[in-house]
Structures are given as C-alpha cells and as structure tokens.
Design a protein that fits this description.
There is one protein chain. The protein is α+β, with helices and mostly antiparallel strands and 197 residues long. The chain has a domain of 133 residues. An eight-stranded antiparallel beta barrel has the order 2-3-4-5-6-7-8-11. Strands 9-10 form a two-stranded antiparallel ribbon.
C-alpha cells in the first residue's frame, strides 16, 4: 500500500497543477465516446492556444496546448483527448501523450505516472467553454463521505482510482453540484477557421 501511494504521488506531475483532479483511469467507455467535428480546429483564449485534430474512426483527438511564459517562452503540452457524453452533457478526458520528452533525468522520468483530467465541455455560439473539475470541492465532498468515490490521498491532493464506469456515475450524480466544476474558460475559434469533418 505504501508503494502504491508513493507511485500515485507522482501522478500530479501529469495532471493540471492549478487545481485539477487527477484520475488513474479514463472517464470514457466504448458506449459513451462521441466524436464532434466542430471541436476540431484552433481555439484561442487569453493565455493559451488549443489546437485539436481528430479521427472520427477512433473517436479520438490529438490536442496541442501552446502557452506563453514570460521566463521560459513558448511552452507546449501534447495530450490525447476523448469526448464523453453522460446524460446529455459532454466532458473532455485529457491524457498526456507518451512520446513527449521531458528535460529531466532517467531516475525522475521512470517515476512519473500519467493521469487523466476531466473538463466539462460545451460549444455554444461559436465558443468553446471548458470547466475543470474543482479540486477543493471534490476534496471536501470526499472528506464528508470517504466512500463517495474510490481514491487515494497524497500529501497535497486526492487522486481518483475508480473504474471508468464508477467515474461516470460519480460525475453524473454530482455534475450539477455547486462548484463541482469551476467557472468556464471561454475560447474563441481562431479567425474564420471552420471545423474539419
């Protein structure tokens, strides 16, 4: 158990460090995967550019997020993305691509464990609205009811360990709860670019 917790503690490096809830398992199952060609293209917000390419046959997307950092310049995150539909609502499951090279030593690299993160997703009036599952809210819910969803607690956050089906039930039951998902970030499609079908 101690080894499991030690391994899970590294999951946070693969998750969003700004308050996302990391999960060891994916949210999608074959019956909940959807493909929406209108997601494909380049979306822009104040701090980042999100570029989606997609494959309708596998219902999968490749996502490159480019951010500008004052000290480090242009930073790129390459992710696998899947669109999941639960009770008529859609969620993005983001997972770091495995072929990305990190500028760290082998000892550090061998102890990294990639994690999934989930974002509530809506395309509305030509805008992409993304809301991250709120870490503080989920932690408080689990503190009140530890059996709410399978998880492990690391030094500084919880990591979901539930199966995809269990994760789906957890989200369906709680998605409408106050602050379960944070305020949406609004991205606009770049220029007159249209989705690739």
């Amino acid at each position: 158990m101690a080894m499991k917790r030690w391994m899970i503690s590294f999951v946070i490096l693969a998750a969003c460090l700004a308050g996302c809830v990391p999960s060891l398992h994916e949210l999608y199952t074959k019956d909940t995967l959807v493909y929406d060609p209108s997601l494909v293209g380049t979306w822009v917000e104040e701090k980042a550019i999100w570029q989606f390419t997609g494959d309708p046959n596998t219902k999968a997307y490749q996502l490159v997020i480019t951010e500008q950092d004052e000290k480090r310049g242009s930073l790129e995150s390459k992710l696998e993305a899947h669109l999941v539909e639960l009770d008529g609502k859609r969620y993005l499951d983001l997972f770091p691509q495995k072929d990305v090279e990190l500028n760290v030593g082998d000892w550090f690299r061998t102890n990294l464990l990639r994690a999934h993160t989930f974002l509530k997703t809506e395309i509305k009036n030509g805008k992409l609205l993304l809301s991250v599952m709120d870490l503080d809210t989920v932690e408080k819910m689990i503190e009140k009811n530890p059996g709410l969803v399978k998880h492990e607690k690391t030094e500084d956050r919880i990591v979901l360990t539930a199966s995809p089906k269990e994760l789906q039930e957890f989200i369906k039951k709680n998605a409408a709860a106050e602050k379960f998902f944070g305020e949406p970030v609004e991205l606009k499609r770049r220029g007159n670019e249209s989705a690739t079908k």
